[in-house]
Amino acid sequence: MSNWTDIKSKAPIDEKALYWVLTGEEGAEPVLARFNDYRSLGGVRDYWQTLSHDDFSMEGTKWQEIEKPTAKTDGAVFAKLFHSEECGQILVKIDNGEDGAEVRYFFEPKGLGVCSVAANWSEDCNEVQWEKADALFARADREHCVGVVEGIAAKISAQFAEGGE
Q1: Which of 21, 144, 153, 159 is the most buried (most CB within 10 A)?
Q2: 88, 57: one domain
């Protein structure tokens, strides 16, 4: 493990986080612990606390906060969430759909239920589909997504206003 923080240079602040802690004893393995802010409760000093609730001194220790894992093991983003006045939440997701790679937009225009529309490239080979899907998903920022779904929502609403013709 790298990036150890010496307790003398900086103390942890998040009591809800988990930390790897090196006690400073030669050959000691890192200990999984929480930070206990006893000073804020009137105590003389703060302590580390193991998951079995045993306190131990912070003196001479080094620590690093354990990062929460992402949903996908490779850390890749597969969905983005935005908001617009006309369509509320906008969820855009890259996935393997019925016709291969797709970028699907979910939204809920005023007066309608949840709608979805997908861009796919079913005529292309799998590798090309994913290249195109990755490129579109990379460009899918708020401005892009709002433009896509509000344009589609306007067309859908116009169809209902005209009696579905």
Answers
A1: 21
A2: no
